TrEMBL record:
It comes from the Bacteria. Residues 15-253 form the MmgE/PrpD N-terminal domain. Belongs to the PrpD family. GO terms for molecular function: lyase activity. This is 2-methylcitrate dehydratase.
Length: 469
C-alpha cells in the first residue's frame, strides 16, 4: 500500500476531508449563491481600496522583484502572477484596510467576534482562475469555506492564546482542494499539512497593532494553497494532527467535539456574514451610523461639545476592546481604525468616515485629540438585549448649556439576516464609492454585473480578469 492510500479512515482528518468535498444542496441554493456573489463583490471593493496601502504595496514589489508566472489576475494591478502570488497579494489587498466582512459567533451565551472569513476568499478566486473552474463551483467552495471557518472557530475557546486566523490556512486548503477536484486521500493530506502550519498567536490582534494583523490571513492563505498543490502531487501530511495530543489540540480543543466539523449543515454561516460599510473595526460599525446621525443634529456646533457618551452592548468582546489602552489614544492607522474614541469623534467633526479621515495622521492632530479625550465609553445590557445578534451603539452628545443629542443604531446597513442575507444596495454602493477614482462608470457597471452573476459563468477566468487595471 503506497503512502497516498495508507490513510486511517477513522481519523478526524479523513472525516473532515470527506465533508469538505461533499456535494451539498445548501451550497447551491439561490440565497447562498447570491450571498457569496455579494461577498465576492465586497471583497473586490476592499481589494481596490487597498491598492496604495503599505502592506500590499510591499507584497506587490516583492512579486515584481522575484518574478511570477503570469497565470492569475492581481486585483487592481496591471500585471499577472502565479496562483500563489495572486492568493498572497489579493488576500492582502482584501484585508489590509480592515474593510472586509465580519462574522459574529455565540460563545457561552454571548456574542463575540468570529473573524473575517473573506480574509481567504480571494484564494478561491485565484485557484478557480488557475483551474478554469465554473463560477458555481468556486462559489460553492467559498460557501463551504465560510462554514468550515465557523466550525473551526467553534473549537477554539474564547480565552485561547491562539488567534482566530489559525483557521484560515485550513480553509484555504479545503477550498483549493475542492476546486481542484482532489480525491479524499489527497484532500486529507492537504488539510493535515495546513493544520500543521496554521497556529497563530493572538498577539497579532492586540496591544499596539503592527502590520502583522492585516497580513497574517494572506500568509496563511498562500501557505494553505501551496500545501494543497503539494498534496495534489502526492505529498503526505500527519493524519493524526487533530487526534494526537502532540497535534493541534492546544489550538482546537477536542473536548468541544471534533465531530462538529463534519456534522450536517443546519444554517449556513455565510448568511451571518456582515459587510462593513465603513473602513473600521466591525464592532464600531453601528457607532459610526449613530455618530453620523448625531453630526446632522449637531449642525456644526462641535466647539460646544462638553462630553460624548458612547454606549455599546454589554459583551465580553466590547469590554475587552474598550479596555485596550492603545486604542483610547491611537498613534497608528491600525489603532485608529480600531478606536472607539477616535472614530465617533472624527465622524462628529467631519460627517463621514472614509480614508480621508486617516490622512496625515488625523488621530494625532490637536483638535482631534481634544475631542477624542471627551469620549466616555460604557456598556449597556439593555442595549444588548434589544439587538442580540449585532453590535449596537447609542451616542449621547452633551453640549454647553445642557442640551443632549441622542442617537442610536441597532443594525448597521451591512448587517446580514439569516433569512434573507445581505441587502444588495449597500454592497453595490460601497463598490462604486471605493472605485470611483479608479474605474470608469462603464467598467464599474460591468464588474458589478459579472460578479453578481458569477454562478452562471462556465469559467471564472474572464470575470476575474476584469479586476486588473
Amino acid at each position: 500500500m503506497n503512502d497516498m492510500t495508507a490513510i486511517n479512515r477513522e481519523s478526524s482528518i479523513a472525516s473532515l476531508a470527506k465533508w469538505t468535498l461533499a456535494a451539498e444542496p445548501a451550497y447551491v441554493s439561490d440565497l447562498a449563491l447570491r450571498q457569496a456573489e455579494l461577498l465576492t463583490l465586497d471583497s473586490v471593493a476592499c481589494a481596490y481600496s487597498a491598492r496604495n496601502a503599505s502592506a500590499p504595496r510591499r507584497v506587490a514589489a516583492m512579486i515584481d522583484e522575484l518574478g511570477s508566472k503570469p497565470a492569475c489576475t492581481l486585483i487592481g494591478h496591471s500585471g499577472r502572477g502565479s496562483v500563489l502570488d495572486a492568493t498572497f497579494l489579493n488576500c492582502a489587498l482584501v484585508r489590509s484596510q480592515d474593510f472586509n466582512d465580519v462574522q459574529f459567533i455565540q460563545k457561552d451565551g454571548k456574542l463575540h467576534i468570529g473573524g473575517h472569513c473573506s480574509d481567504v476568499l480571494a484564494a478561491a478566486l485565484a485557484v478557480g482562475e488557475a483551474q478554469g473552474a465554473r463560477g458555481q463551483d468556486v462559489l460553492a467552495a467559498i460557501i463551504m469555506g465560510y462554514e468550515l471557518f465557523r466550525r473551526l472557530r467553534d473549537l477554539m475557546p474564547m480565552d485561547s492564546v491562539w488567534d482566530g486566523a489559525s483557521a484560515v490556512g485550513v480553509v484555504a486548503a479545503a477550498m483549493a482542494g475542492r476546486i481542484m477536484g482532489l480525491d479524499e486521500a489527497r484532500q486529507a493530506n492537504a488539510l493535515a499539512l495546513a493544520l500543521a502550519r496554521c497556529a497563530t498567536p493572538s498577539i497579532v490582534r492586540y496591544g499596539e497593532l503592527s502590520g502583522a494583523k492585516n497580513m497574517v490571513g494572506a500568509l496563511l492563505a498562500r501557505e494553505g494553497v501551496q500545501l494543497t498543490l503539494l498534496a495534489a502531487k502526492g505529498m503526505t501530511g500527519p493524519q493524526q494532527v487533530l487526534d494526537h495530543r502532540w497535534g493541534m489540540q492546544e489550538v482546537f480543543d477536542p473536548a468541544l467535539g471534533f465531530e462538529r466539523l463534519w456534522a450536517p449543515i443546519d444554517e449556513l454561516f455565510i448568511l451571518r456574514s456582515h459587510v462593513k460599510t465603513f473602513a473600521c473595526i466591525g464592532t464600531a460599525q453601528a457607532s459610526i451610523v449613530a455618530a453620523l446621525n448625531a453630526h446632522r443634529l449637531l449642525a456644526g456646533r462641535v466647539s460646544d461639545i462638553e462630553a460624548i457618551d458612547v454606549i455599546m452592548a454589554d459583551l465580553p468582546i466590547i469590554r475587552k476592546q474598550q479596555a485596550e489602552k492603545p486604542r483610547l489614544t491611537p498613534s497608528t492607522h491600525e489603532t485608529a481604525d480600531h478606536s472607539f474614541t477616535f472614530l465617533p469623534a472624527v465622524v462628529l467633526m467631519d460627517g463621514e468616515l472614509t480614508e480621508r479621515q486617516y490622512v496625515n495622521e488625523r488621530w494625532a492632530q490637536p483638535e482631534t485629540r481634544a475631542l477624542t479625550a471627551k469620549v466616555r465609553l460604557s456598556v449597556s445590557e439593555e442595549l444588548r438585549a434589544r439587538s442580540p445578534e449585532a453590535m449596537p451603539c447609542q451616542i449621547r452628545v452633551h453640549l454647553a448649556g445642557g442640551e443632549v443629542i441622542q442617537t442610536e443604531c441597532l443594525y448597521p446597513p451591512g448587517h446580514s439576516f439569516p433569512d434573507r442575507g445581505l441587502a444588495r444596495e449597500p454592497v453595490v454602493e460601497k463598490f462604486k464609492e471605493v472605485t470611483e477614482t479608479i474605474l470608469t462608470g462603464e467598467r464599474q457597471a460591468r464588474i458589478i454585473e459579472e460578479v453578481l452573476d458569477l454562478r452562471n459563468k462556465g469559467t471564472v477566468g474572464p470575470t476575474i480578469s476584469l479586476l486588473s487595471i
